[in-house]
Amino acid sequence: MRISPLVAGLIGGFVAALLQAFFNVFPPPAYGVCIACHTRDLVNWIVNNLFGSNLGLAPVSKAFPVLTVVGIFIGAFIAANAHKEFKLKETHNPIVGFVLGILVIIFALLMGGCPLRETIRTAYGDIIAFISLIAMFIGVIVASEVYLKRKAW
């Protein structure tokens, strides 16, 4: 059974509306589906519950962790296996990849670097979010050009 992105979005939106209407579930403003924020909240929730610490969490994550990252990972794994596209790949230097990944997450958390979150904040009228969104767009274009030109050499 194939589900188009449109149908998946409509189902997700309908379920979200039902949750809000019947169970009074409301996400915090400008939270979005941010892999950096949800990963931070998941890790902080686990650490807080294991060690009794008081690391920062979004209000929606205080009672129960947001499992978006786990769901995306499992969904991608199932989709890749269903379409016979799952392959383990070795990187040239896993330490560099790990450090770069950590830096991306750190800067995403520092700057609010999730495009969806920046778009939502811009819709709320946040001028800093608008500037960040434009800067992110320019950064992607410049980095893509540099990368593509370097690959063409």
From TrEMBL:
From which domain of life does this come?
Archaea
Question: Which residue ranges traverse the bilayer?
Answer: 63-82, 94-112, 127-148
Which keywords describe this protein according to UniProt? Membrane, Transmembrane, Transmembrane helix
User: What's this protein's name?
Assistant: Uncharacterized protein
Natural source organism: Methanocaldococcus infernus (strain DSM 11812 / JCM 15783 / ME)
